[in-house]
C-alpha cells in the first residue's frame, strides 16, 4: 500500500499544508519517504466539526454494531500484513517480533472491547422502581445508564506505535464507549499511523458509520495538538508520553471555558522491592531476570523497572553481580527517536556524574542510535536528599538504593511519587515483612505484582495500568484493559421518564433487562 502523507479527515484524504514532517529510520537516522503534510487550523476545525456532527448518531449505534466496527478495524489491521510491520520496524527501530507481538495485542484489545460491547454490562444499567405509596413521600422512578462524553482527542505514543497509538487502547476504548476519535499522530511514526488510520477509515465506510467517527491529523509543530485539546467540541483527551507534554495538555484543558478530563500517562520508575529471604535464597536468579526486564525494548516501557530497593549486604551484592554479568551479555538496542536517545544519554550522564551515585555496570556500547544499558547504586540517605534521583530516565537505566534495614526501605517508599507498578520479590518467609508494606504500596501504585516485573502488561478485565500522579493524571482510571472504557462515559439519570421516551436499554421490555441492577441489587443476587 502506497503512503500518501495525507491527513484523514472524515471521508477525505487531504493534503496538510501547514509545514511538513518526515519519519526517521530509527536505526540509520535517515529520512523516510513520503513527506507528511501538517494540518492547518482550518483542517483541525473541519475534523472537529465532523466529529461533533458524528457524536449523536454514533453514540446511539447499537453496541453490537460498534462491536462489528472494532472487529472490522482488527481485521483490516491484520490485512495490512507485512507492509505495516515493515514500516513500523523502520520507524520505531523495534525488533520485528516485538512489532508482530504488539500488533497481536492491538487486535486483541479491539476484540476485547467488541466482546464487552456484546455483553452490554459496561452500561451499568440501574433501576430504582417508583414507590408511589412510600411514606412520607413517594419515590420517583429512577433509571440510570452511562453515556459517552463526546469526541475524544488521542495522542499517539512514541513507545507503542500500534498498541498505544492510532488504533491503540485509548482509541479502542473511546470508540467502544460511543465517542468519535481524532488522533494526533506521533511524529516518530507517521507512516504506521497513516496505514492504521486507513484501516479504521475503511471500517467506518464499510459499516456506513457517520463520517466524523474518526479522523487522523499530523502536526508539524505543537499548534494543532494544542488546538485540538482547546477545541470546544473535544470532550476528553488520551495521552501517553512525557511529564512535560502531559502537563502542558492538562493546563490547556483546565484553562478552557469548559475544562475537560485529560487521561495522561506520564512517568514512572516502577520500584522493585527485594525482600531479605528472597534475596538470600535466589539473588542470582532475580538479578538475571531483572537485567532482562530492564533492557527489554531498550528499556522504553512505561513499566520499566528503574528503581530497586533492598537492604544492603552480601545478598544485595550477589544480586548486583548477577545483574551486571547479565547486562554485559545484552546488546545495546536502537532507541525510538533521536530525541529519546539524547534524553536517555543525558539522564545516564547525570546519574554517572552524581557525587553520591556509583556506576555498577554498563551494557555493551552500541551505534550512535542505540542505548547502552546502565546500572547505578546509591544509599537511601542520598536518595532521600536529592529529588532528582527519583526522576525517570526513559530507557534501560536503573538505580539501586541500598537501605540500612526494612524501616529505611519503607521511608524510601513513602518519599516516592505515584507509580504505575510496584514489584515485590519475596519468599514465604517474607510475607510478614511484605504485608507491612502493602498499605503504602497500595497508596503508591496502580498495580502490585509479586516475583515478576511490570513489563509485559496483560490486557484483560482486572488489569490496571494507571496510578497516582505523575504515573497518570487521574489515578482513578486505567488505560489498559476493559475498565479503560469508564474514562469516556458519564452517568445520566432518567426520573419518571415515560417508557416511550426512555433509551431502549432502560425500557420495561429491554432485552438488557437481565443486566439491570434493581434497587441496588446485582442481577442474579438474592436478598
Ligand atoms: P512527548 O514529548 O511527551 O510527546 C508525546 C506527544 O505529545 C507527541 O505527539 C508530541 O508532539 C505531543 N506533545 C508533547 N508536548 C506537547 C506540548 N507542549 N503541546 C502539544 N503537544 C505536545 O513524548 P515522546 O516524544 O514520546 O518522548 C519524549 C520523552 O517522553 C521520553 O524521552 C520519555 O522521557 C517520555 N516518555 C515517557 C513514556 C512513559 O510511558 N513514561 C512514554 C513515552 C515517552 P510532538 O512530538 O509533535 O512535539
Summarize the structure.
The protein is of the alpha/beta class.
Q: How are the SSEs ordered, and which strands pair?
A:
Blueprint: E1 7-9, E2 12-14, E3 20-24, E4 31-37, H1 41-59, H2 63-79, H3 81-92, H4 96-119, E5 126-128, E6 142-148, E7 152-155, H5 169-177, E8 181-184, H6 190-206, E9 214-217, H7 223-230, E10 236-240, H8 243-255, E11 262-265, E12 271-274, H9 276-295, E13 307-311, H10 314-327, E14 333-334, H11 338-352, E15 358-362, E16 370-371, E17 374-379, H12 380-385, E18 397-403, H13 406-415, E19 419-425, H14 431-444, E20 445-450, E21 489-495, E22 517-518
Parallel strand pairs: 5-22, 7-8, 7-10, 8-9, 10-11, 12-13, 12-19, 13-18, 17-18, 19-20
Antiparallel strand pairs: 1-2, 3-4, 5-6, 6-21, 14-16, 15-17
Helix pairs in contact: 1-7, 2-4, 2-6, 3-4, 3-6, 4-5, 9-10, 13-14
The chain binds NADP nicotinamide-adenine-dinucleotide phosphate.
NADP nicotinamide-adenine-dinucleotide phosphate binds next to helix 7, helix 8 and helix 11.
Pfam families: Aldedh
InterPro entries: Ald_DH/histidinol_DH, Ald_DH_C, Ald_DH_N, Aldehyde_DH_dom, Aldehyde_DH_Superfamily, ALDH_KGSADH
Domain Aldehyde dehydrogenase: 21-458
Amino acid at each position: 500500500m502506497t503512503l500518501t502523507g495525507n491527513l484523514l479527515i472524515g471521508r477525505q484524504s487531504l493534503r496538510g499544508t501547514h509545514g511538513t514532517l518526515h519519519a526517521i529510520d530509527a536505526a540509520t537516522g535517515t529520512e523516510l519517504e513520503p513527506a507528511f503534510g501538517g494540518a492547518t487550523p482550518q483542517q483541525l476545525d473541519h475534523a472537529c466539526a465532523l466529529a461533533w456532527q458524528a457524536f449523536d448518531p454514533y453514540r446511539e449505534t447499537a453496541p453490537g454494531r460498534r462491536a462489528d466496527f472494532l472487529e472490522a478495524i482488527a481485521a483490516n489491521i491484520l490485512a495490512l500484513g507485512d507492509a505495516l510491520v515493515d514500516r513500523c520496524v523502520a520507524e520505531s527501530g523495534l525488533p520485528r517480533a516485538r512489532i508482530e507481538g504488539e500488533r497481536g495485542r492491538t487486535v486483541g484489545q479491539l476484540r476485547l472491547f467488541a466482546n464487552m460491547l456484546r455483553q452490554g454490562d459496561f452500561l451499568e444499567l440501574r433501576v430504582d422502581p417508583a414507590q408511589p405509596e412510600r411514606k412520607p413521600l413517594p419515590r420517583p422512578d429512577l433509571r440510570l445508564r452511562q453515556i459517552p462524553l463526546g469526541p475524544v482527542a488521542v495522542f499517539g505514543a512514541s513507545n507503542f506505535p500500534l498498541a498505544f497509538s492510532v488504533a491503540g487502547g485509548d482509541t479502542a476504548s473511546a470508540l467502544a464507549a460511543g465517542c468519535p476519535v481524532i488522533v494526533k499522530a506521533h511524529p516518530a511514526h507517521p507512516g504506521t499511523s497513516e496505514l492504521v488510520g486507513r484501516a479504521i477509515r475503511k471500517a467506518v465506510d464499510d459499516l456506513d458509520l457517520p463520517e466524523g467517527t474518526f479522523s487522523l491529523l499530523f502536526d508539524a509543530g505543537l499548534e494543532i495538538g494544542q488546538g485540538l485539546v482547546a477545541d470546544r467540541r473535544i470532550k476528553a483527551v488520551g495521552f501517553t508520553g512525557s511529564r512535560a507534554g502531559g502537563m502542558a495538555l492538562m493546563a490547556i484543558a483546565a484553562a478552557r471555558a469548559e475544562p475537560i478530563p485529560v487521561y495522561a500517562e506520564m512517568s514512572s520508575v516502577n520500584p522493585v522491592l527485594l525482600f531479605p529471604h528472597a534475596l538470600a535464597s535466589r539473588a542470582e536468579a532475580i538479578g538475571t531476570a531483572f537485567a532482562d526486564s530492564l533492557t527489554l525494548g531498550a528499556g522504553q516501557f512505561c513499566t520499566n523497572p528503574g528503581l530497586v530497593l533492598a537492604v544492603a549486604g552480601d545478598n544485595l551484592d550477589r544480586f548486583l553481580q548477577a545483574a551486571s554479568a547479565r547486562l554485559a551479555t545484552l546488546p545495546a538496542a536502537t532507541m525510538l527517536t533521536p530525541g529519546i536517545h539524547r534524553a536517555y544519554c543525558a539522564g545516564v550522564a547525570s546519574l554517572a556524574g552524581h557525587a553520591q551515585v556509583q556506576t555498577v555496570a554498563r551494557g555493551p556500547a552500541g551505534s550512535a542510535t542505540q542505548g547502552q544499558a546502565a546500572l547505578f547504586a546509591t544509599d537511601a540517605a542520598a536518595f532521600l536528599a536529592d529529588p532528582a534521583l527519583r526522576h525517570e530516565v526513559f530507557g534501560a537505566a536503573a538505580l539501586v538504593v541500598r537501605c540500612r534495614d526494612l524501616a529505611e526501605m519503607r521511608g524510601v517508599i513513602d518519599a516516592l511519587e505515584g507509580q504505575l507498578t510496584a514489584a515485590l520479590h519475596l519468599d514465604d518467609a517474607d510475607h510478614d515483612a511484605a504485608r507491612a508494606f502493602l498499605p503504602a504500596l497500595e497508596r503508591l501504585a496502580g498495580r502490585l505484582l509479586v516475583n515478576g516485573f511490570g513489563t509485559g502488561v496483560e490486557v484483560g478485565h482486572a488489569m490496571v495500568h494507571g496510578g497516582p500522579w505523575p504515573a497518570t493524571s487521574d489515578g482513578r482510571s486505567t488505560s489498559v484493559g476493559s475498565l479503560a472504557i469508564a474514562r469516556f462515559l458519564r452517568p445520566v439519570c432518567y426520573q419518571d421518564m415515560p417508557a416511550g421516551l426512555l433509551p431502549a436499554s432502560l425500557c420495561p421490555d429491554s432485552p438488557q433487562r437481565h443486566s439491570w441492577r434493581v434497587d441496588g441489587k446485582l442481577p442474579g443476587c438474592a436478598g
